[in-house]
Design brief:
- The protein is of the alpha+beta class.
- The protein is built from two helices and eight strands, in the order ααββββββββ.
- The chain has helices at 3-14, 17-33; strands spanning 43-46, 52-59, 62-70, 100-107, 113-120, 125-135, 138-144, 152-158.
- Strands 1-2-3-4-5-6-7-8 form an eight-stranded antiparallel beta barrel.
Amino acid sequence: MSKKQQIRDLMLRSGSALGILLLSGSITLVEAQEPKPQAPEMGLWYDDSGRGAVEISPCGNQLCGHIVWLHKTTDSQGRPLHDKYNPEPQMRNRPICGIQVLGNLNPQGDGSWGAGWVYDPKVGKSYDVEIKLANANTLTVFGYAGVKLFGKKLVWKRAPADLPKCDSPLPASVR
């Protein structure tokens, strides 16, 4: 018997108005705690350049993504890569590894996730974005500035789940 059924039976046996009131609240609490199915867009994705990987994960009822892997984590002087093109000067010293590059993605009626934003640290700009799974290993990322007609479609490929994070040493096979 499920937890929800056990609570319902207990409350109904009590027969009190308080029991019935608690029953409705308890069922809501149990339902709210049940895990939601995992969106297939979640996971690790190589960006269109293949030089970075983004981990897409839930942020409440939305999806977001953070850079978790970089082919090269340092510049020509051996310093960690920073968000040097960010339009906000106080953000230019943050490392590229770990920054959020996707946010506020909401499920859309057509199976995509949209109404969110994508940040491109290579140019320091944010765009509106929609993502959609083309197949199990291909994600279409469509960025645009207000009008979809002038947008740009990028293709991201699924990365292996055991891809080392950019704060971990890279194995020789990935360097």
